[in-house]
């Protein structure tokens, strides 16, 4: 792995962590996970197995450590690992379309839906949920889809423009 890639992925995860702390919780203390958005951006920029697995694992551990969801450490790690690799597979399959910001927004929305389903399912199987699955999915995951899509629309072009100006080589350059 390239050191520049690792540094950029660390910055993305760091920004996601800061955003996580400044966003208030709702729905039994759950929060939208902006670390997930940053993970998706990292996978868009560096669509290789090593980078995707690395950023997914780090994002899962940090999301789990800082979660306000009871018993959320292991479900976060499971969720991010699976979601990151599935997201990578989709990005690689749609590589020719992934340069389009609209396609990126759709993929981030679908990735957030998948992440929420995996997180809640693994939390249910490991330790139970504080409320019904459908209720949590509706009041936490669906708003997170909108927030992650908006965050992606704002952050992704900024990052890609900065990288383009610095002649940083990534797989995705905005159209």
Please describe the topology of this protein.
Blueprint: H1 3-22, H2 34-45, H3 49-66, H4 73-93, H5 101-126, H6 133-165
Helix pairs in contact: 1-2, 1-3, 2-3, 2-4, 2-5, 2-6, 3-4, 4-5, 5-6
Task: Explain how this protein is built.
- By secondary structure, the chain is mainly alpha-helical.
- The protein has one domain.
- Helix content is 74%, strand content 0%.
- It is built from 6 helices and no strands.
- Helix 2 packs across helix 6.
- The longest helix has 33 residues.
- It is globular, with a radius of gyration of 15 Å.
- It starts with a helix and ends in a 10-residue tail after the last helix.
CA-based gyration radius: 15 Å
Portion of residues in beta strands equals under 5%
* Helix content range: over 70%
- H-E string: HHHHHH
Shape, per Cα inertia axes:
globular
Number of domains: 1
Gist?
Pfam families: TrpP. This protein has 175 residues and is mainly α.
Features:
175 residues; mainly alpha; 6 helices; 74% helix; membrane; transmembrane
């Amino acid at each position: 792995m390239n050191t520049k890639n690792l540094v950029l992925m660390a910055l993305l995860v760091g920004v996601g962590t800061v955003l996580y702390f400044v966003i208030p919780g709702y729905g039994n203390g759950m929060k939208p996970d902006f670390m997930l958005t940053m993970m998706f951006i990292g996978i868009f920029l560096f669509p290789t197995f090593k980078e995707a697995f690395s950023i997914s694992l780090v994002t899962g551990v940090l999301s789990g450590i800082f979660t306000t969801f009871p018993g959320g450490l292991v479900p976060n790690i499971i969720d991010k690992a699976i979601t990151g690799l599935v997201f990578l597979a989709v990005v690689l399959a749609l590589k020719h379309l992934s340069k389009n910001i609209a396609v990126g927004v759709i993929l981030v929305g679908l990735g957030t839906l998948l992440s929420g389903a995996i997180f809640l399912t693994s939390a249910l199987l490991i330790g139970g949920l504080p409320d019904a699955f459908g209720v949590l999915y509706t009041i936490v995951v669906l708003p997170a889809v909108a927030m992650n899509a908006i965050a992606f629309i704002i952050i992704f072009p900024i990052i890609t423009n900065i990288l383009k100006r610095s002649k940083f080589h990534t797989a995705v350059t905005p159209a």
